[in-house]
Amino acid sequence: MKQFYDFKIEKIKNLSSKDKNLRKKNLEVFNKNGFPNKKDEDWKFTDLNKILSQNFKNIVNKDFSLKNKKLELIKEFEHNYISLLNGKLISSNFSYEEKNKISLENYNYNNKIIFDKKNSLNFLNDALATGGFSLEISKNYKLNKPLVIYNHFSNSLKETIVNYKNLIILNENSKLNLINYVNESIQENFMVNTIENIKIKKNSSLSNIFINNSKCNGYFYKYIQSNLEKNSNFENYLFSSGLKFNKIDIVVNFNEEHSKSSIFSALNLNNNEHQEIKTRINHNSPHCQSFQKIKDVLSDESKGVYQGKIFVKNNAQKTDAYQLSRALILDGNAEFDAKPELEIYADDVKCSHGSTSGSIDLNSIHYLKTRGIPEKEAYKMLINGFLIETLEKLAEGKLKNFLIKKLERQINGY
Amino acid sequence: MLHIKNLEATIDKKHILKGLNLSIKPGEVHAIMGPNGSGKSTLANVLSGKTGYETKGQIQYNGESLNDLSTEERAQKGIFLAFQYPLEIPGVNTNIFLRTSLNSVLKAKGEKELDTLTFLKLIKEKAAELGIDEKFLSRQLNVGFSGGEKKKNEILQMKLLQPKLSILDETDSGLDIDALRIVADGVNSYKNTENAFLIITHYQRLLDYIKPDYVHVLSNGKIVKTGSADLGMQLEKTGYKNLI
Ligand SMILES: Nc1ncnc2c1ncn2[C@@H]1O[C@H](COP(=O)(O)OP(=O)(O)OP(=O)(O)O)[C@@H](O)[C@H]1O
Ligand SMILES: [Mg+2]
Fold first, then answer.
1. Is B167 on the interface with A (CB under 8 A)?
2. Is B136 within the bounds of a domain?
């Protein structure tokens, strides 16, 4: 296979010689392994190397100059925001909050984070990452309004990879609703490789929502590592339809007792879009609950993948873990692959998992049609009904209505 | 209004309707009775335009051949089927479904679609007439509804869409005595000289409330006997033995 990428540490400005050397080493590891393929258990269903080689001629890294891009703010609900351009922090606004309770800075690359996983994309990130942010919420502070992260990308990203890292810390007894929002319709192919480190301290709660508003030809990989202290809560909502390629790789570590995490996903994919969700829930402590519900609707030649692993350590008694994936396949050429895995070393646990995939129920379509509803509309109603269920647990309000609208947009067309 | 001539229907190699004839005029109420498996629901399905059947023969509806019309077009032109087993549709809100349905029909007729508020007022009224608790309307369509509640919901849809030809497939089965009366009242109050009913039932009970102009016996894919309302009462006593 022809080499289709060319990454250079030299393109990153202002590095200390120590940092440069470290980055070079990481790049060497990446170059040795290349992009992941199916031999890697974590990429069992996807030959990323092949996909990229077919869609890119020569991917490079660049040093981006910071330009302000005009912000188009969401009007449907009041919110704070952070705006990122190609992963770099360009502006923020916390007008609904007490300023001294929130700290937001550029990510500090001098603080090395140790990850419990190293895949070649992580190495690539370690080699090339610049930009990103560190966000820290003070003890006992619950944000009044949600925080939207506007992820912007410039039009000049053709054949370019963007790498960055974020750090999010919720100190004791704090609360944050995060919305990761992509609203780009870039036609050129580009890549985004992110590592996010999340720390949720005692009695704190983070909800992390991913929502896309348009179609774009970006190839995204995001690795999220989260560490949960006692009595904390971590919710994830993944509504990232519209991206050409997307893989979200989430690790949840229950390090102390009585915490909860949930992952809900609703994806409507068409053309040759490809989305993957990979989760690893580490029940390292007793009395924790994890919940996962993944729903995909696939048409044309699209592909959905779910790899979900629940690990229960021998001392993690009274673990309650639930995992379900369901796919609706509308087209013979579409594909859904699921690999649910349980690895349990404790005996007093409740774990259940299931996976189904099937086609749309034609009797239901007929029923709707007998009420005068055109066939196309009937399909949309059923697809919407199938996906919208993932929003059930979210509190009623403007944010939920916004998400329902966006999900409908993803289903009905842009 | 409806003329069926020599209708045959086959599905999955099973020949079910075997030359059925039936004519219905505006303002008439027709009842169809007949043994289990004789093809009553199949007739209703074929009239609704359900796919999967191989059919022969003719069905004329208001001068148009039904074969050329899709299910939704039939509905938009006034054919309504109350299902023997209404489907549960998870994730679809009953109110939204009802409004989409009504507006699709209005749109096809070239009439003005209803905005949310006007619709909610209308549906509240109709639901109250049938003794349906409003709470049902904000639930998922038929999901977890009891058998009788599902049947009432079918009649609610009928009253909302105001069809010309209503086909009720065993709408009475599973209804308690009070619900049966409410449903029958619903039909009677909607009945006029313009519209017609085809009522499939196993029991004379319903026909005590909704007086049919004709009673037909469907057996083995054909109408084997047609009579007046008295035929229903007679069948209740003698069963189908002597007819088949
Ligand atoms: N898809 C199918 N494939 C094979 N046989 C079928 C199919 N659908 C219906 N049948 C058969 O056709 C016959 C007629 O079915 P239908 O549902 O029309 O009966 P019915 O008169 O409505 O009966 P009931 O009074 O029990 O409701 C039955 O024997 C049924 O098993
Ligand atoms: Mg039947």
1. no
2. yes
- The encoded tokens of residue A95 equal 């007008």
The DSSP secondary-structure symbol of B110 reads T
Q: Which domain holds residue B80?
A: 2-238
Probe target for ligand 1 pocket from B10, B41, B199, with the most ligand atoms within 8 Å of CB: B41
Q: Which residues pair with A67 in a beta bridge?
A: none
Q: Whose CA is nearest to atom 16 of ligand 1?
A: B39
Contact B90, A382 (CB under 8 A): no
- Note the pLDDT tens digit of each residue in A364-398: 999 999 999 999 999 999 999 999 999 999 999 99
Cβ contacts of B72 on chain A, cutoff 8 Å: 369-370, 372-375, 378
Rounded mean pLDDT, A108-119 = 74
Give me the numbers of helices (H) and strands (E) for chain A, helices first please. Answer: 6, 21
Q: Please tell me the distance between residue B160's alpha carbon and the centre of ligand 2 in angstroms.
A: 24
Residue A111: pLDDT band (50, 70, 90) is confident
Maximum Cα interatomic distance, chain A, rounded to a whole number of Å: 72
Torsion of CA A354, A360, A361, A363, to 10 degrees: 180
Domain count along chain B: 1
Torsion of CA A381, A383, A386, A387, to 10 degrees: -110
Q: Report yes or no on B129 lying in a domain.
A: yes
Q: Number of folded domains in chain A?
A: 1
This prediction has a pTM of 0.91
Contact with chain B for residue A384, Cβ under 8 A: yes
Containing structural domain, residue A337: 5-412
Tens of pLDDT, residues B107-165: 999 999 999 999 999 999 999 988 899 899 999 999 999 988 999 999 999 999 999 99
What is the rounded CA–CA span in Å between residue A30 and residue A32? 5
Nearest alpha carbon to residue A182 among A215, A223, A151? A151
